[in-house]
Amino acid sequence: MAGKTSRDVLIRGIRVLGHAVREEPRIFAVAVGGSVLYHLLIIGSAYVVGAVVGEVVVPALESGQADTRAVVLSAVALVAVSLGRVLGMFGRRLGAGFMQYRLQASYRRRITRRYLELPLSWHQRHATGTLLSNANSDVEAAWFPIAPLPFAVGTLVMLVVAMGSLLVTDWVLALVGVAIFPALFALNVVYSRRMAPRQARAQQMRAQVSAIAHESFDGALVVKTMGQEARETNRFAAQAGELRDALISVGRLRGVFDPMLETLPSLGTVAVLLVGAVRLSQGAVTITELVSVAFLFTVLAFPVRAIGWVLAELPRSVAGWDRLQAVLTATGEMAYGNTTLDPQDGRPATLVFDRVSFGYPVAEPAPATAPAEPGLSTEPEAAARPVGVPERAEVPEPAGPVPVLHDVSFTVPAGRTVALVGPTGSGKSTIVSLAVRLVDPDAGSVTVDGVDVRSLTAASLAGTSALVAQVPFVFDDTIRANVTLDREGITDDDVWAALRLAEADGFVAVLPDGLDTLVGERGAALSGGQRQRLTLARALAGRPRLLVLDDATSAVDPRVEAAILAALRGDRSTPSDATGTAGAGELPPGASILVVAYRRATIALADEVVYVEHGRVVGRGTHATLLGSTPGYAALVTAYERAEAERERERAYEEPAPGTPAIRQGEEVDA
Amino acid sequence: MTTVASESTSERSESTWQTLRRGLALSPELRTGLAGTLALALVAMVGRAAVPVAIQQGIDRGLRAPGGPDLGVVGVVVAATAAVLVVTTMCGYLMMRRLFTVSETALAGVRVRAFRHVHDLSTLHQQAERRGSLVSRVTSDVDQITQFLQWGGVILLINLGQVVVTTVVMTVYSWQLTLVVFAAFVPAVAVIRIFQKRLAGAYGVVRVRLGAMLAAVSETVVGASVIRAYGVSGRTAARLDETIDAQRRAQQRAIRTSVVSFSTGEIAAGLALAGVVVLGVKLGVDGTLGIGEITAFLFLVTMFIQPVQIATEVLNEAQNAVAGWRRVLDVLDMTPDVADPGERGVDLPPGPIDLCFSEVTFSYPGGPPVLVDVNVDIPPKTRVAVVGETGSGKTTFAKLLTRLMDPSAGTVLLSGVPLDQVRFGSLRSRVVMVPQDGFLFDSTVAENVRFGRPELTDEELAVAFVDLGLGDWVDGLPAGLATPVGERGEALSVGERQLVALARAYVADPDLLVLDEATSAVDPATEVRLQRTLDAVTRGRTTVAIAHRLSTAQAADEVIVVDRGRIVQRGPHEELVNDPESVYGLLFASWLEQTR
């Protein structure tokens, strides 16, 4: 059974290699050509050495005088063979290397293109680590056998030629070759088959060790503040121990096979000596031929192992290829339509949610493609859980999407501001994602200016609406690039105007390189509030007609937020859009705004409030109406006042209150 | 940017031998049974010389025996050689077995030590390194060392041994021909070494480019929603292509160098063979050498070339492995600047904790001071709120208080004990901070909450959520406490993640709880409720809350106002708010404007 499976892997592996050859036929031809040249010259060198011994050395020693011409010719022939081999090696190594690197680059490009094309819902189903290893180690694994492939092809050619020349030389000596070379080949095959599952397991353990390290270092602050370094180390050590055991098992197998593979050709050489001696005494072969054949066995031993390398890498290659295909053939991309909205001179757009329902698909616990062999489940992220921290928890019933939104309907009229209010976890961020079409609804529709967002082109969609997410994402680039994102027509003046509006101009101005300052990985050089203001500026710089803010000012101090909101509001209330388009460096013209908010000030700016609870719209109307009509809303927005009032009451009862710290310093007071 | 630069300079600052010595000093296990392994390797190597010697003996004593071919002699030679080969094969097996066991065990230890060490480094150090590069210290860098020790190291050892054995046999046959062979190889080795250095540089570039490419890919994956929302996939694709191609070009440059280096050995081999024939024939004619010896020599030259070539290749790997080893050692050598006093330390006295900042100043390395001359006493069981604008230094205050960082000057005392003398075991169990970004591990709500207290049962966790007034929220989750939170908790909303992080700190049962904007993304009603329940459950303990929602300040016993690194006001809210022109007065006015 296992044999059949590995044969399947072998066949599929050869097919994968076929893809590679079809993609880079010319480079492959160069590599194989070089390799064949190299290998034929290996045989050639055996015969040259044999000839030199038989035709030059023996006569010279027997006659007691050297034929200078023959000696020089021998020397030239030996050097020529070397130069030819160098030529072959250049072709093979450069060809194989270039082919491997080109394939890697090409597939990395294809994979990352798919990442950009596939919808957010697909991204949410796949762990970041998996996607990273698809683009990195899976690409590497898929094309790993490419490096030894031309060498192996050359070896095969060499074996055929060697056997042929053996037969021509002497059929009895050829029998030794017939015994040794297939045995060597068979040993290699057995070796790779038994090695493949062990290697796969080691690879899997490696991925798990890496996953734990990644997560643990990501959460380093939590580990530190909770003093759990020892526990985390134990969790890591357990996995590192498994990796160690897997690697030792790989090593034991190597210990068995490597010395055998090395000894077999040597045994062949001494067998040639024995058989050759018999044949020589019978006069069937000359000493030249005997030496040639013995030499042949010595030089053939090493290259034959290249076939083993290719075979050993095939299962890994197939597994990598399968995972690449899973990405390349993944479906469900949110195709863009071909409708372009009339930009209307930048006047605000209308957003309508009509009976929208949505559920998040459940994360995929396993890769789309099952591993080719039972022992080959090398999915790096799966099962990376330690003892105590269970596996990526079992998917809860039911298996279908977990409903988040039910029948959500509301409108953001052109030029108006709508506040989206609701308790933590009520589905606000999901509504926001739907509004800018990061995800598509399961039922109902989202329209902008009367057009379903699904039928808009990517450019029209991105040019119309802008989202400022709750958690700011900053690219490892300059401030300028982070604001413009290379969108056309955004000048430095526009950038500064947007930064000013987002109250980010102050900190940018004092940065060492101003707009050219690099912000580091994920904006590490900036504080949370600065990152948030930078992403706000990014949204404003595109002059969106619909601005969607997902609690985007939460990391900003109240005063700063107030300033930003005042600017947005002031800008929108000025009749600038009536007098014409805003010039370069001016504030962007007004936009319709959908804003997720908790703060009363933000809510106060809104023309209408949509209140959601558990994924349903529970109330719509002005702040005042909702205060009266919707108890949940009232509880939420008046929380601070009520808390304060309650405190006042308590204080009144509890007087004298526990002394203020200022006066009770140093003394123990019980509550 | 800067990390890359410093990485490549540190790679050149130390010689290979120094690194190896440091590495061996750190893993003495590697020496375990080394003598035995080497002895086995030596025997295994002798097998390599068996075949040419057999050929020479077979030809000179058997085939060309004075009275015509003597098959008996050939038979004896062949049998003896076969026996030697069997023995050396077994020695080879035993040697590899030992080598694998020892090296894997030793380096698993290094892996775990490096992992622990990264956690022991201060947050400053941790943040200075790219997360991915820290991960490679305990993964690919260690793999490179083991791979080298086992594949490369064995091959290098065997091949160097083969060079030695071959040289000895060659010298026995003919010192003159040996000189010819060396004359061809010594310059070749010199040339190879030059290319080796270039190759090390070329591989360094490959590694840096690989890092850049992975960073670009990870940005594409993590920033998928921004890329989509702004329709900038074209720009992202261009950046990706740029890094992918840069890496490919670096790889191609490296392989070009390696081919040139490798072909040097091949040419030297050709020259050596030619030289042996020319001089060999002359010596043979003079009667110094026999045909068998010359033939054996031609074999020996081949046996000399192969290991030199292979050793050349392996040395390439060795460069990478040594660089990897150096990077691991560098992490281990990094002294944690916020170190656990360990045995020398003391435990915090039992009971509620009071804290005192005395003349505390802090600045990041090379930066302006973030906190200046801070003096503050907070009595036990007080609830203190620290407020101030973004960048005023309030988070730094929290980090100093929990000893995530040490002050540049001055002292922080908890219950009268200088903080740097408190054992971490005591500190981390008594003082818990909830950071703003409540990182969650990719498991369930329950597992995350019991992170600090693995022994807690689900029932106890459920009670804890009820204590915090979050029972309803847990019940509303798809699978309650068993709900998976996703990678970094991303299956939950930002606010929900904060709730879990808060519960995690609460069940840890600290005497001093530090909240760093721990509820910044939670809705006001929940926040107020949490505040009340927290007040109730933390009664009798000290809490310090860093807040920008001033509702927290209103509820606190005392408010500390930080402005531009200094404490400008302190006192209860009612007092501070009386001065409308003060920093606090202005902050509060703005707050009111926001919330009313």
Largest sheet of chain B: 6 strands, mixed
Strand composition percent of chain B: 5-15%
Main interface: chain pair and counts: A-B, 201 and 209 residues
**Average pLDDT score of chain A:** 80
What does this structure look like?
Chain A has 671 residues and is an alpha/beta fold. Chain A folds into two domains: 2-328, ABC transporter transmembrane region fold; 348-650, Rossmann fold (3-Layer(aba) Sandwich), CATH 3.40.50. In chain A, 61% of the residues lie in helices and 9% in strands. Chain A has 22 helices and ten strands. In chain A, the strands form two sheets. A six-stranded mixed sheet of chain A has the order 6-7-8-3-9-10, sandwiched between helices. In chain A, strands 2-1-4-5 form a four-stranded antiparallel sheet, covered by helices on one side. In chain A, a hairpin with a 2-residue loop joins strand 4 (443-448) and strand 5. In chain A, helix 2 runs parallel beside helix 6, helix 7 runs parallel beside helix 10 (287-328) and helix 20 crosses helix 21. The model of chain A is unreliable at 364-399, 571-588 and 656-671 (pLDDT under 50). Chain B has 596 residues and is of the alpha/beta class. Among the domains of chain B are: 16-171, no CATH class; 355-595, Rossmann fold, CATH 3.40.50. Chain B has 21 helices and ten strands. In chain B, the strands form two sheets. In chain B, strands 6-7-8-3-9-10 form a six-stranded mixed sheet, sandwiched between helices. In chain B, strand 1 and strand 2 (369-378) form a beta hairpin. In chain B, helix 4 (71-120) runs parallel beside helix 11 (291-333). Chain B is elongated. Chain B starts with a helix and ends with a helix. Mean pLDDT of chain B is 84; it is low at 1-12.
Features:
heterodimer; A: 671 residues; alpha/beta; Rossmann fold; four-stranded antiparallel beta sheet; 61% helix; B: 596 residues; 10% strand; elongated
